[in-house]
Amino acid sequence: MYRDPVESLEPQSSHVAALAPRPLRVGMIGIGTVGSGTFRVLARNQAEIAGRAGRGIKLVMVCARSLARAMRVVGRDAALTNDPMLVATHPDVDVVVEVAGGTSPAREWVLAAIRAGKHVVTANKALLATHGNEIFAAARQHGVTVAYEGAVAVSIPIIKALREGLTANRIEWVAGIINGTTNFILSKMREEGLGFAEALAQAQALGYAEADPTFDIEGIDAAHKITLLAANAFGMPVRFADAQVEGITRLQGLDVACAEQLGFRIKLLGVARRRKEGDADGVELRVQPALVPATHLLAQVNGSMNAVMVKGDAAGVTMFYGAGAGSEQTASAVIADLVDVARLQGTTPAQRVPHQGFHAHAVNEQLAVLPRAAVHTRHYLRVPVHTAQQVDEVSTWLAAQQVPVQRVELARDQALPAGSGPEAQAQVLVLTDAVAQATVDRAVQALADHPAVAAPVVTLRVEWLEG
Amino acid sequence: MYRDPVESLEPQSSHVAALAPRPLRVGMIGIGTVGSGTFRVLARNQAEIAGRAGRGIKLVMVCARSLARAMRVVGRDAALTNDPMLVATHPDVDVVVEVAGGTSPAREWVLAAIRAGKHVVTANKALLATHGNEIFAAARQHGVTVAYEGAVAVSIPIIKALREGLTANRIEWVAGIINGTTNFILSKMREEGLGFAEALAQAQALGYAEADPTFDIEGIDAAHKITLLAANAFGMPVRFADAQVEGITRLQGLDVACAEQLGFRIKLLGVARRRKEGDADGVELRVQPALVPATHLLAQVNGSMNAVMVKGDAAGVTMFYGAGAGSEQTASAVIADLVDVARLQGTTPAQRVPHQGFHAHAVNEQLAVLPRAAVHTRHYLRVPVHTAQQVDEVSTWLAAQQVPVQRVELARDQALPAGSGPEAQAQVLVLTDAVAQATVDRAVQALADHPAVAAPVVTLRVEWLEG
To answer: What per-residue confidence (pLDDT) applies to B14?
Structure first.
């Protein structure tokens, strides 16, 4: 039998407990932006939260590097410590909230909390995307829950939507804008005609990008998130190591403008798509800058906002939109998880939502990530040529290489960088039908030697999503 | 103690039951569009659904008017009957799915099922919007759950989002396009310049509107849904009788065109907004055609699609988008509820999500719907005048009536109906700042006697939503 860690601390008379249930006692590791937001929202909305949860939710212990700073946030309401393991294992703590971030010590703290029989709430996508399989297995073994709504698109209850709201569906794909920093940069590039470096500098100045923005701009943060979404959508293990990850650092303003000319916008998309065609049985798991039709709802998601689209075989296409970061926005997710945990007291695992939406026996260990070469999408190619007359030459050559050319045109002057005279390169813009990445890669490599081609060819994926 | 109706039917050895849990046995009342979709999806995705629910979900009994038709849908997989009360009370049924619709006999069936100790899943918004308080009270009394994700915006798990995903938040407002028929008609009117009657006829021909479309086009269906959303957002009783309900039957194509000229689109919105200003403490609960800025995400929701926006004090603005009707789209919601119910076996009410998101003791019985006169929004006025020169006259007169005029212009020729010559009326278009409905109503009434005014004045609300 599973013994609930909270229940063991209850007064012995269950009748009294039922009338006035004891608050859920929270130990928190980390009291930075997310931790302090969580404290603030728990305090401000405590009556409504208790009315929903059926019991209070009380922060009883906080681990912080700076106790003085922690004291300024939580006052004397909670015990303070420098020792994360004390919070993870303390008998007065029912649930451990890990909002310190990082993977290496966080993994040990979370595993220690689980072994101590405590439920865990975390917003740490890096941790779960890399160590989720181990952590979920440990939680199953110890009969506790690890909740992580705050790990993906914080203000949007997308984990709950996937693993509870859409349980009837065979999920076909999940695709979304799940990194606010890069969406802010891409919006700036498009709206103000900026290059990547300028837009990044603006994002940093405005607090939308960190001093070291690598995780965001290289697509790693989005890849952590799409990995977790895929695990919940398809009932597959967490497979971050197999994801294809491409950021926006090499994206040129010229391609943003050329995409616009073709009726598209460029977004950094996380895509997880189930594929069952011939020998390619598996999952596309990838983060890439991609062209989305300008009229598509995802193209309307601007600034630092996030949106996740899900295609289910019964529900059809649904979309979930909201802020992807922020102190209280993340607190919203962390506290929703705490309210769920507040209801777990006395339940068995069969009465709970499993960590990845699927019970362990139903998780498909065989479901693998397809290699890059097997991914099929439409493509955008920009081929710099010496003269505009070479447009047909390029088009004919691509068709001969089995690239299914759908549309070809020259970049108009207004798409070209200011000051480009008639002597500048002409840019041949190509849209293809769906084609294997391998075919495109081969063609692009060969194009480098084509006499008409004046500079490196740029390719981007075109996501032709329903919805 | 609450005795779970399912548990009482379990094999006595709980060890054996834990290893191979018995399927959840579903009795269904009604096997029309939604019922047959539910049967189909349950059958098609049964392995994945069981993998998520931790046990199978099996349709064991169906009540239908035509047994022959029911037999064609479910074959010999389920017992068939004409008697809804048999399904509602049968000992072999764990959970009753009510998808027959209507309020009058449906209420009695649902109450009978509750009294027989069965959980209920229903997609019946009319039933819950009018009898929800009684039904939820009965369910609490008998220790069972009534789940109704399918009652609002079927493909979108919005009930779950409000009452579980956003539990940290004090909800400030909920606003949405929650009737697909009217959104289809409005999209047609705008895109093809049709009048209401023509657009309705097209919707009927294409199956987007019923032969008797009254519930949809008069806003009643949307009012049922916003009533349920408000109950979950604010923890208030179901107060459909107090909602202000205005449909789109009187909407003129001219106003769709004039709104477009001003940079807006007209949508039938359900709005529930908490207000705490001076003596107006309560909730706006209303369904009305309203102007939404054309660049706003809600304005991009076209055809028969639905979208619900929620503003929480912590999460900020979130939006949930998807199909609002359809056989398998509704099945998606019904089955999600069934999976939740499958996990309730052996739980107590304290371990469950309460019917309206708030536990009974926390439901605010005092929270009332504000009267129409007290509602504050921006407004659009279209004032037909004899000559274009009278535009200033109207504007000055409105300001004198305490209507805070923000912008005034004349309708351009292309907004006017084809064939309008220079001798036709001029249309003065006015946008106001936020103003009490009472002030606008008074001004519009008085305007009728103004010598410049050539025909009845049209007013519509302008919803200036964040997001």
So the answer is: 44
Residues of A in contact with B301 (CB under 8 A): 297
Q: In what order do the strands lie in the sheet with A95-98?
A: A79-81, A57-63, A24-29, A95-98, A119-122, A146-147
Q: Is B121 helix (H, G, I), strand (E, B) or coil?
A: strand
Secondary structure element (H or E) that encloses residue B314, with its range: none
Percent of chain B with pLDDT over 90: 90
Tokens 């597959």: give the residue. A236
Distance CA B460, CA B385 (A): 18
* b/e burial code for range A296-314 (CB count within 10 A of at least 16 → b): bbbbbbbebbbbbbbbbbb
pLDDT of A15 higher than 50: no
Query: How large a percentage of chain A has pLDDT more than 70?
Result: 93
User: What's at A381, amino acid-wise?
Assistant: L
Confidence of residue A9 (pLDDT cuts 50, 70, 90): very low
Nearest beta carbon to residue B362 from set A51, A164, A353: A51
Question: Comparing A73-82, A304-313, B128-137, which segment has the lowest mean pLDDT?
Answer: A73-82
Q: To probe the interface with B, which of A45, A121, A164, A364 has the most B CB atoms within 10 Å?
A: A164
Q: Token digits for A287?
A: 């983060």
How near does any CA of chain B get to the CA of A95, in Å? Answer: 16
Confidence of residue A276 (pLDDT cuts 50, 70, 90): confident
State residue B1's pLDDT score: 32
And the tokens for B323? 């199909």
Is residue B16 pLDDT above 60, yes or no? Answer: no
Distance CA B427, CA B446 (A): 18
What pLDDT score does A414 carry? Answer: 76
Q: Which of B434, B435, B425, B432 is nearest to B456 (CA)?
A: B425
Residue A317 has its nearest CB partner, among B316, B322, B357, at B322
Best residue of B236, B300, B332 to probe chain A, by most A CBs closer than 10 Å:
B332
Give chain B's domains with CATH numbers. 15-154+330-362 (3.40.50.720), 167-323 (3.30.360.10), 375-462 (3.30.70.260)
Gap between the Cα atoms of A27 and A44, Å rounded: 18
Which residues of B are tagged catalytic? 225
**pLDDT the model gives residue B155:** 97
Q: Give the end-to-end CA distance of chain B in Å, rounded to a whole number.
A: 46
- Tally A–B CB contacts below 8 A: 246
